[in-house]
Amino acid sequence: MRYKMKQFFIIFLLVTISFGSKAQQILPNSLQIALQTAPNDSVKFKVSRSIYTFYEETNRDSALHYAQLRYSIAKKNNRKIEEAYCQGQMAYQQIYLGRFSEALANLTTAIQIASDTKDADTWELTPLIPLAKPE
Amino acid sequence: MITLSMLNHMHGHLKLQTGSDESLYYFKEGRRIGMKIGNDFRVTVADMVLATNYLRLNLADSALLYAQEGELYGKHGVISKYLANIYSVMGDIYWKKGLDTMALTYYHKALSYAIPEANYTVVGGVYESLSHYYLAKRNADSSLQYAIKNYTVLKSVGAVITFSSRDLNLGKVYQNLSAAYTLKGNIDSTNKYLQLAITTKDSLTANKLNRLAAFQRLTLDEQIRLQEEEKRVETENKRRLYILFASIFVAFYNHTPYIS
What we know:
Chain A is mostly helical. Chain A contains six helices and no strands.
């Protein structure tokens, strides 16, 4: 009886662990490789957007890390609108991490930049599809 | 413009999380700009958040309107990730309106979009809604089943997920488990999970309050700084005005004999 209980407990534990790990967020290899082999900053910026989206709602620390990476790429290349956009992404993560002050500072700066700069010819920010009122 | 739309949207989130009523204004502004530039993505996310927030305010009809608009733009732009969120909130709206079958249909539709996209925020949220749904139907087994599923999801992605106005956390999961065990008549498990729910919720509330207090202190300091800045500018202006008057007076006095 005791042996059976032990066996049941082990099976239960294994099932629980397997269910738990099923939902773990593991970044696809393809994205990691794409980021490592990106030929230039523009591509790196685009790939890191996909990685940011992957983590966006479920791992805010990782999402914030990639938003900061994107921000540093934009800043290095003096891409003002991209900078502002990434500050918005950083702010979003900071809000839900409870870091409201940092979020407010990022948003205030970003809104100033976005209002002062024309955003023609930006790197890809979000999928931009011409919109007509759908049927 | 797309950046301005997004930043307004994020500002809405900040207002929402810091307890300000202005959040709806910013979400709508983000949507308006999104419409103006023709970006399905920005309109869909705005509709999703507006629907969630109108539902929070018990305005189910307005919520449904935004959810339906969001569904149209989400489908048009093939924004599957947020379509899952929209279907989840539509489930909640129909549940609120007493249309149980519709609610159930949309919960499962949300899961069918969210699971392949690994959108665990929606998966966890829908499991929580389904647990409540079956609790209300007094179906203890199904309620418990979804509460356990929600526990598994939350444990795997982190203890707390906050999305829009919806908090998913272990405290709520323990509460749902406790309620399901009550329905099953299992007193020991009811008490165990109730205790866990209280401890976890207390800890989460304390954390949130600390963060809000720090933010309010910051905004208060900023207000004081702005008031001081205004006073300084005012004093400086007065000083300049006095110097101007004094200069005019001196100039006038010096030139009086010449004029006469």
